Fold this sequence. Notes:
The chain is mainly alpha-helical. It has helices spanning 2-17, 24-52, 55-80, 96-125, 133-165, 169-175, 179-208, 212-242, 247-258, 293-308; strands spanning 263-275, 278-287, 313-320. The chain has ten helices and three strands; from the N terminus they run αααααααααββαβ. Strands 1-2-3 form a three-stranded mixed sheet. α3 (55-80) packs antiparallel against α7 (179-208), α3 packs parallel to α8 and α5 packs across α6. Residues 15-21 and 331-339 have low confidence and may be disordered.
Amino acid sequence: MAEESRKSALLTAIKEHGEAGETKSESTFTVILAFVANLLIAIAKSFAAAITGSASMVAEAAHSWADAGNEVFLLFADRRSQRPRDARHPMGYGREAYIWSMFAAFGLFTAGAVVSIMHGFQELFEPEPAGDFLIAYVVLAISFALEAVSFTQAYRQARKTAQAIRVPTLEHVANSSNPTLRAVFAEDAAALIGLLVAFLGILLHQLTGSPIPDAIGSITVGILLGVVAVVLIDRNRRFLVGQSASAEVQELAVELLLKRPEIDRVTYLHLEFVGPSKLYLVAAVDLQGNQGEDDVALKLRKLEREMENFNYIEEAVITLSTKDEPSLASSRESGRSPA
């Protein structure tokens, strides 16, 4: 019963909002909020790094500048992927979201991770004097508050959709077709952890007088950013090369087709993401009765247009099955009530 209830909720979310469930305006607001927060934080951290000479603060400044630059790429991803399809791009422009998000992930790796690690090692072998620790603590506290605001918005957006389709929030973020939400969520989470690492490194530097904890803090922040960047790059790569929908969504698509009175069986289904919350659907169906070629063609075209009326279907192609092709399993055929 719990599984049927979850599938029913997922079907409702898909019908109303699409696979990812987030509105475009909400995603844009999340990215803009993150950009403003990271820009203010980057300026403050750069000032503190110049005053204190802290390696961890330099790493944090590089991190925030990388995040701010990445949000620009994410804004491009959000805007360009929303353009309607045309003759030159029959599948639309949705995959641009993954391209620009990939640029953002590479930027996080090079401008954030590499710079932080290099500066940390440089500080280990050629330490510079540090001071004015109070300024560093104040900037870190302000940065933490701003990052928390940005992360809260990303978390709220992700949790709302996760609750609608009844999956854990982190699972939804990891598997969502929305790369901008995943990027902001991951970057802000990494930023909050990085700020705690930087605070610990600076505190130990102040207490011990040794620059080694501060340098290790810088290297740790860099490694953290590198891991996040690699994960984001991999997720965007999967969607660029052709990410299929989950088994649950595929079964729901079969059930949506079988709800049509003219469809008797579904023998083939291909669902591939072509953008955030946008799927390319190919299906083979067995129509009831034996009608003429023209009537069958008209029915198939009508079915395609009706499937494309769903927000999450960018294009649908429906063909005829042969008698010897086995039917795809569905809740209707297995005796369960449809979700």
